[in-house]
Amino acid sequence: MAKKSISKGIIKDIIIVGVGVLVIWIGLQVAFGTQNPFYVVASGSMIPVLQVYDVLIVQGHEPFEDIEVGDIIVFNRPSDHNRVIVHRVASIIDDDPKTVRTKGDANPASIPGTDFPITEEEYIGKVAYTIPQVGYVTQLLKPPINYVIIAVVIGIMVVKQMTKKKSEKEFTFTDPLDSEKTDTIEELSDIDKIEKDSENSKHMEKSKDVERLEDSEYLEEMEEVEKEMKDIDESIEDSVEKKKDRE
C-alpha cells in the first residue's frame, strides 16, 4: 500500500510539472508569435556579434515586409528547409514578392541556396534578444547526462513522498486526543459523579435524622399536654363532688 501511495504521489508531481511547463511554453509561443521562440547559435558564422551557444529570442510578430537591411533574422534554408539559419540581411533582391539576401558576418560572401533567395515562406522571425552562452545548458541535456538528471529528479520526488508519509504517521501517533486519554477523562467524570452522589446521600440521611428528632420531641410535648389536661379534669371533678357534699 505504501509503494502504491508513493507511486501515485510521484505521478501527480510529474503531471503538475508537465502541465506547468506546457502552459509556460504555449504562453511564450503566443507572446512571440512563433512555434519556437528560442534558438541556440550552433556555428561561428556570425562572430563577433553572436557567439556559439548564445541563446536567441526570436520575435515572430515582426512582419517580413518590415524587414530591412542590417536586421538579423532566423529562417529555414531555402534549398531544402531542413536547417535553421541565423544571418544578417545584406540586401533586398526583389519587392514583389519581397525577397532578401543574407550573409553571415564572419563569412566572406553569401552562399546560394543557404543565404538567398529568402522569401516570407522561409522566414521565421527577427532576433529580438540575445542571452550570452546560456546554450551550454543544452549540452547537459544530451545523453547520458539527461538520464542522470531525470533520475535525480525522480529520486527527489520519492524522498519527498516518503518524508510526507512519515510525517503523517508521526502526527497520528502523537495525537493529543487519543482513546486512552479520553477514557481517563470519562473515569474522572465518573469519580466526580460518585462524590456528588455520596454527598447527596449523606445530606438526605442527615435530613431524615432531623425529621425523626423533631417527631419525637413533638410526641413528648403532646403527652405532657394530655397529662396536664387529665389532671385538670380530675381536679374539677373533685371540686364538684365536694360542693355536693356540702349541700
Give the gist of this structure.
This protein has 247 residues and is of the alpha+beta class. The protein has helices at 2-32, 136-140, 145-173, 179-246, and strands at 38-40, 55-59, 72-76, 84-95, 98-103, 123-131.
Task: For this entry, give a set of tags.
alpha+beta; 54% helix; 247 residues; 16% strand
What report would you give on this structure?
This protein is 54% helix and 16% strand. The chain is an alpha+beta fold and 247 residues long. The protein has a six-stranded antiparallel beta sheet with strand order 1-2-6-3-4-5, with no helix packed on it. Helix 1 (2-32) packs across helix 3. The longest helix is centred in the C-terminal third of the chain and has 68 residues, at 179-246. The mean pLDDT is 78.
